[in-house]
Amino acid sequence: MNQPLLSVIVTCYNLEKYIDKCVSSIVNQTYQNLDILLIDDGSTDNTGKICDAWKERDPRIRIIHKQNEGLAYARKTGVENVTAEYLTFVDADDWIDANMYSEMMEALLSTNSDIAQCGVWLVYEDGRQKPHYKFESATTSFEVAGRIESVLLMLEDKKWRPWMWNKIFKTHLFENARFYKGRGFAEDDLSLYLYHKTSQNVFVNGFYYFYLQRTGGICGSVNVKGEMKNHRDFSDAFSERYFFVKQHPEYHAALPLIECYALRIGISLLRNMIVFPQYSPKNYFYEKARELRRISLSKGNKLQRGLKIEYYILKFAGAISYKLFRSLYVGIINMTNKLKITDRQTCCLLSKLRIRLPGD
Fold it and tell me: Do 76 and 15 form a contact (C-beta atoms < 8 A)?
């Protein structure tokens, strides 16, 4: 098979425990024509030194050490330094099958597609692993879809996920791509807009990417500030997704689902900002409330009854009235907890729940 140069962008931040396994899985690919960019995003542990050691071992590796600006800008730095016609990403705590790039590049080139993606293994720290999605009666080694079908499949958020790292892209798709500085959560949503620029895409029916599910504390005394930022990133990304779909009639079949995503995550965020106001930027509550009020509910939407009531309070009574309503609710729950009448939690951080969305 002809092997065009493929650039592999690996973003690294304080992952000294994992990066050796990750880079080893890349340099040992059966697809050899690789340009490997290790982007050290201002690590404070030994990650940078490990990257430098790998550069000495393999001439295909380039290192970029930069100040910490978050995942999005680390990827942006990688893209800006790509010279190959094709590029892909790997997160430094994950690893890939030895045949991943051979199989995906073969499918990409043979179908003249713009983006190729593959199946993903979810790997747990206790050694368990399971496929993210079970291929039901896959009769071919790959599936081809046009632009509209590809975007709709991506919007369903099931088999075709917006992850950046289980895909190979034609590099030109990143022209004028928008990277949000500091956004480290839901940054993968960029792939949705890249699919919008394509003509044809291919899904390889094989599991080649190993996605490590790292555990960590979420609520209470653990890093609530960081989880609130993740929640804001996630909500902002899904609001952008809604307005993007709203703007493009060819994707309106997915509109009821996407508005449900945006409202469930957004209203959950408003709730959490009422409980933890100190962890959000000034006036962000009202900015998010205005954004959510611009979302319309389509006929046949799947928003739960309680959230629908909150949505209508927000929509028709305004942000101040909604905040008073929700604050009163929180106060009542806290009081009943003190009196030991109930034992209900007043907050549900996104990363605690991993909010279950329609179709999950």
Answer: no
